[in-house]
User: What shape does this take?
Amino acid sequence: MAPRAYWKGYLKLSLVSCPIALFPATSEREKISFHQINKETGNRIRYKKVDAETGDEVEAGDIIKGYEVAKGEYIELEPEELEAVALESKRVIEIDEFVPRSEIDELYMRDPYYIVPDGDVGQQAFAVIREAIRKEGMVALGRVVFTSREHIIALEARGKGMMGITLRYPYEVRSEDEYFDGIEDEKIPKDMLDLAVHIVDTKIGHFKPQEFQDRYEDALKELLRKKQRGEKIERVREPAPSNVINLMDALRQSVKASGGRAAGGAGADKSGGGARRARASASAAKSAPKKAARSGARHKKAS
Assistant: This one.
């Protein structure tokens, strides 16, 4: 069965337009989900919508939306009143401008969608818009309305189609200053940084999402298999925490643990730079001058 479009409308660049369909590019349907069950009867739990004051069940047709302006005081809105909100982009994504992809902060990115031409009519217009975006190496910005709200959407060429990513508005993004202002400006000793950089070098690789493993999902499946077979379920013991309380010692032990991978493991620097850095950092770990010892003492309680 072909996937069902999430949204259909038109893509417009100046006077050029074409019919398109949007499909969610991600899905969580494959993840294990649970129902709530009555432990006594084994029957599923069903929720009812009830009046908060009277406790009486309310029919779907009698439920409207309300905006709370004061405690218990609401501005009530009928569905047709919400529909009357004037938005020109209800069935059209009109490209407003083009911006460099590098200028879009990841914090503003929300949900990805695949965009394809809808039907045979407009295939050429779709290809023209797609290739214009691809050739310029830019991202097109437009507006789209779904889920009863207007969204900014960033469009870019992807294979034979396009990808659209909805973007957050500035008021939806929290300022990093609220969280980072309390972080102190630490002076990092060079020997510590060298060791940390060496550890990073031994773990350098390439982005391979096909190798990602959802260990929680796998554990859930195994749990269900055991339960189905009637086996006893035992809680997995958590590994004992490390006893290393000195930051310099922790770095040295980390270097020692990954030392065999520095020159020949996956992600090694083929140009030799990684190996040279590894030798330099290993040397720093062995020599560890008195200055490092003093700096390590200052970080005695770091973990």
